[in-house]
Q: What sequence folds into this?
């Protein structure tokens, strides 16, 4: 009798594993500022959201975008410009960044989904590089200097974001909101169609789903979330620079997702925190950072394809 | 010398020549990518880094062994090709049964390792590599001044490209290769050692990249990031041409180099981006690429 009760309790835990993990994550993030540097946490949260956005494509539609820095970086430029030059309040600055990313996502997505598989990655990389050159040449981005001293402003006109804890709360709310939204998308009927396309595209088409349209919508959604992350990062660091649009950034978000676990809900978050923490420790070693990243790539691909959360889920035999 | 649309013939043909030189690097690199992709089903992101390694090998040979350009053009592709074979045996061979994207990610990681290491030791500024004595100077063609070395790069890479095309499309070895691309299991059943062929193919593709690197060394400086930006343009070239045809890769490479050169003359602001714009247009009109078979 007791064993049955235990087993069913176990089952309930299993069934609600994602909800439990979400609660644990939220609690950790709420208490985190007491023992960790807030700017570090905000940076990690922005990258976590960026990686979740990227994972929406690779994990649930099976599309490898090698150009996500395009959306991240351009959203951060537009948000910084809107906040600094146009005097937008922070919420509108972030929204305009996200809208820019969505528009760019629609164009890039419409072009890239015309080819499959490996070509998709090359096309997104090439288009991102093109937009990188535009960012270098456009006057409003200030080239190598970037847009500096971006004002954080007052959220809704009365919450002063210059205060570090207010800023942290805003970033946390944005992150959690987008995370839940992504969870909802992935588990909606729309998300199921995306997974069907990932598993077997011809079959999904034969069942009457217009796979191109689904892929495009997924691409735009992913670009938009990446844009929210980039715009938020511009406000956190009060800076938008070329680093965020360049291709190593696209590589970094891939690495974060890979380390955390492709196609897992919490993997990108774990991967982002892992990589940001690692880079924090490694700031003194200069160019070796790239070598370390490269080694992690090689090790992950050869030996550790499930990633941190994927392995954890395998050990606990739950869905995460 | 004469003028055309207010631009001197020297400037016009000079840029066209630069375009042709870039085009020959695009052709050599996209050729290597296409050959590798055909056999290994992997897009070799390390290709740009291997081009850089070729240039550095030439630099090291001169600096530490006193071996000049003509030695380098033979030795560097062999040395870098052997490192490619080692990479294939150590890493790539475990990925053939997995999704394509893992090959891309692994080779991307390797590119980061190579480029990061070199940047650490040599910084980001370029190291000079001089033109070999036999090819110094130039000749006046009437409408332009042709530096001998640049003429040599175009002619020699065209010869290498055409030889590769001939070997793959017209010889027995090439027919094995093409057959193994189509159906490796059946070709193995005929007693041909396909895994070894795959390894050698990777080595050969990498050697082409290194050869391009040696030729680039006197034109551009030898620098750790010389391959990183090039490889992205080459990806666009590959998307435009499609990887189905060897001749397609050669024609697209040279053609796009020329177009890029022309853009530099008439609309310099777009010279960095013109290839990407062409790629977008080709995707709209002919999604499978100019020479590609639709997947």
A:
């Amino acid at each position: 009798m007791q064993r049955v009760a235990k087993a069913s309790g176990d089952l309930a835990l299993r069934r609600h594993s994602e909800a439990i993990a979400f609660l644990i994550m939220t609690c950790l993030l709420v208490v985190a500022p007491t023992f960790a540097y807030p700017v570090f946490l905000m940076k990690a949260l922005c990258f976590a959201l960026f990686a979740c956005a990227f994972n929406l494509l690779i994990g649930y539609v099976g599309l490898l975008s090698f150009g996500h820095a395009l959306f991240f970086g351009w959203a951060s430029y537009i948000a910084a410009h809107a906040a600094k030059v146009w005097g937008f309040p922070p919420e509108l600055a972030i929204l305009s960044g996200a809208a820019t990313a969505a528009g760019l996502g629609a164009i890039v997505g419409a072009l890239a989904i015309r080819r499959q598989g490996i070509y998709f990655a090359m096309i997104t990389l090439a288009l991102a590089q093109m937009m990188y050159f535009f960012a270098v040449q456009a006057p409003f981005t200030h080239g190598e200097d970037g847009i500096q001293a971006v004002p954080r402003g007052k959220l809704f006109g009365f919450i002063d974001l210059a205060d570090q804890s207010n800023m942290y709360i805003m970033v946390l709310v944005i992150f959690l909101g987008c995370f839940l939204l992504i969870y909802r998308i992935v588990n909606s009927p729309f998300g199921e169609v995306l997974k069907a396309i990932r598993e077997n595209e011809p079959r999904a088409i034969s069942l009457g789903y217009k796979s191109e349209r689904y892929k495009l919508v997924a691409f735009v959604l992913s670009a938009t979330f990446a844009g929210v992350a980039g715009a938020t990062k511009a406000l956190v660091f009060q800076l938008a620079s070329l680093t965020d649009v360049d291709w190593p950034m696209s590589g970094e978000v891939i690495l974060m997702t890979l380390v955390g676990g492709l196609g897992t809900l919490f993997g990108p978050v774990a991967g982002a925190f892992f990589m940001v923490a690692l880079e924090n420790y490694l700031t003194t070693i200069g160019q070796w950072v790239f070598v370390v990243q490269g080694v992690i790539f090689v090790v992950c691909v050869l030996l550790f394809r499930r990633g941190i959360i994927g392995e954890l889920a395998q050990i606990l035999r739950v869905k995460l | 010398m004469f003028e055309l649309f207010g631009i001197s013939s020297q400037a016009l043909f000079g840029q066209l020549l630069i375009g042709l030189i870039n085009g020959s690097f695009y052709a050599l690199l996209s050729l290597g990518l296409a050959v590798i992709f055909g056999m290994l089903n992997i897009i070799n992101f390390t290709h740009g880094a291997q081009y850089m390694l070729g240039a550095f090998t030439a630099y090291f040979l001169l600096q530490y062994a006193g071996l000049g350009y003509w030695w380098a053009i033979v030795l560097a592709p062999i040395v870098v090709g052997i490192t490619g074979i080692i990479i294939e045996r150590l890493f790539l061979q475990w990925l053939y049964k997995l999704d394509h994207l893992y090959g891309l990610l692994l080779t991307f990681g390797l590119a980061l390792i190579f480029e990061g290491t070199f940047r650490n030791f040599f910084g980001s500024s370029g190291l000079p590599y001089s033109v070999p004595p036999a090819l110094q100077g130039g000749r006046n063609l009437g409408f332009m001044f042709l530096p001998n070395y640049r003429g040599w790069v175009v002619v020699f890479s065209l010869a290498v490209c055409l030889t590769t095309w001939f070997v793959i499309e017209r010889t027995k070895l090439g027919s094995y290769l093409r057959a193994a691309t189509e159906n490796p299991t059946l070709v193995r059943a005929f007693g041909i050692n396909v895994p070894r062929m795959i390894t050698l193919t990777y080595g050969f593709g990498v050697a082409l990249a290194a050869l391009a690197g040696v030729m680039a060394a006197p034109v551009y400086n030898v620098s750790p990031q010389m391959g990183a930006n090039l490889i992205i343009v080459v990806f666009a070239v590959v998307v435009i041409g499609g990887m189905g045809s060897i001749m397609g890769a050669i024609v697209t490479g040279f053609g796009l180099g020329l177009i890029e050169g022309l853009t530099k003359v008439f609309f310099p602001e777009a010279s960095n981006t013109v290839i990407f714009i062409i790629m977008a247009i080709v995707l709209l009109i002919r999604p499978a690429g100019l020479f590609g078979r639709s997947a």
